[in-house]
Design brief:
Length: 369
């Protein structure tokens, strides 16, 4: 009987490589995926070839990853379709992945800032779009922040990663959680609202918004920092729950509050239908996280459920990202980086899905989970 992992791998490979026009490309794609899953240590092309039992494969695999003409975007779309059935995602979560590097021998290396570790580093800054449910998550699109991209900020790169995929894949079918703290959300909110994509944007406490809440008449003039607005409505916080498989009861609660807000320079358009969401782990301290969203009609519990998907992505990246080789490409080729990272994302999906099913649930190819 085939193992659970083998069933998942074969089913995914069939879906993933259907867009590749040549049989040899489909064979190389599956070989590389299997090598990523089997290799120990860094998932370099050489180690992938060695773990497949044929070191002479290194040259052909290098050509497949760095020089072959196959298009990685249809493969990413196929991965997203497959994950739709496998995990039932609630949202796409956009998260930075820092890739420390020494030297300048890899594409996109520069001085960066890791927003999740609050520290600078030398290396690459990649922004992944993750298909996320409360049980599992895996990346389906990537964008690398390049030094030569004139003036592109982390926030712009993260938003582009999501919106580029939205235009190709119709991501408006579910919301985007942009987990890249921003001090100036106006341009980002406008981009998503103009595209018709619902979004939750994580904020720095200094991000300025206007208040449109009737319960706060003293804040009707001018823009105020998001943290100051939330400090003023502490008395309106309510225990808000969301599904959390790690909680003993399956539900976890934190104090949270919604405030109707607007963008400082907007009287009409996308800036009028916004909500500021604050969540607290410790009610006596400042908000743990702050978000602004164009989903003004959604209840706080539904919004909080979406924001918590960023924690799911963080756990899965920490637990499985390096095991799948997401940070392991070395080279100057941007094409090579995208091709490797696409297949490493598929390896990550296999790792996450087989880990999430170890409680005894069987994987059935083609049947929604």
């Amino acid at each position: 009987m085939r193992s659970e992992r083998e069933l998942v791998l074969r089913d995914l490979s069939t879906a993933l490589f259907a867009s590749l026009p040549r049989r040899d490309q489909r064979r190389k794609g599956e070989q590389y995926l299997r090598g990523l899953l089997a290799a120990q240590g860094r998932r370099s092309i050489r180690n992938v070839a060695v773990c497949l039992g044929d070191p002479t494969l290194e040259q052909s695999l290098h050509h497949f990853i760095c020089s072959s003409t196959w298009d990685w975007m249809p493969v990413r779309e196929a991965l997203a379709d497959w994950l739709d059935q496998a995990i039932g995602p609630l949202a796409w979560v956009v998260r930075q992945m820092s890739i420390p590097k020494s030297g300048r021998h890899s594409v996109g290396v520069g001085r960066g800032f890791d927003v999740h570790r609050d520290q600078t580093f030398d290396g690459q800054q990649a922004f992944g779009v993750w298909s996320a449910s409360e049980q599992a998550s895996a990346p389906v699109n990537w964008r690398l922040l390049l030094e030569e991209a004139q003036g592109e900020t982390q926030e712009e790169c993260a938003a582009s990663a999501a919106l580029d995929f939205a235009r190709l894949y119709d991501a408006s079918r579910r919301p985007v959680v942009l987990d890249t703290p921003t001090r100036d959300p106006e341009a980002t909110i406008r981009r998503f609202s103009d595209a018709g994509v619902p979004v939750l944007v994580r904020l720095h406490g200094t991000a300025r918004l206007t208040v449109r809440e009737a319960a706060m008449p003293g804040y009707g003039q001018g823009a105020h920092p998001a943290q100051r607005i939330l400090d003023a409505v502490k008395g309106l916080r309510r225990p808000t729950g969301w599904l959390d498989p790690a909680a003993p009861s399956g539900v976890r609660q934190v104090p949270a509050v919604k405030v109707r807000v607007g963008l400082p320079s907007t009287e009409e358009g996308p800036g009028r239908g916004l909500v500021l969401l604050g969540e607290w782990e410790n009610p006596r301290r400042p908000p743990t996280r702050m978000w602004v969203t164009n989903m003004a009609g959604a209840p706080a519990s539904a919004l909080l459920r979406l924001t918590k998907l960023s924690d799911r992505v963080g756990r899965d990246l920490s637990g499985f990202g390096d095991r799948a080789g997401l940070r392991d490409f070395v080279g100057r080729s941007l094409r090579g980086w995208h091709c490797h990272t696409t297949l490493a994302s598929a390896a990550h999906a296999v790792e996450v899905l087989t880990a999430s099913r170890r409680g005894g649930e069987r994987y059935v190819p083609g049947i929604p989970a």
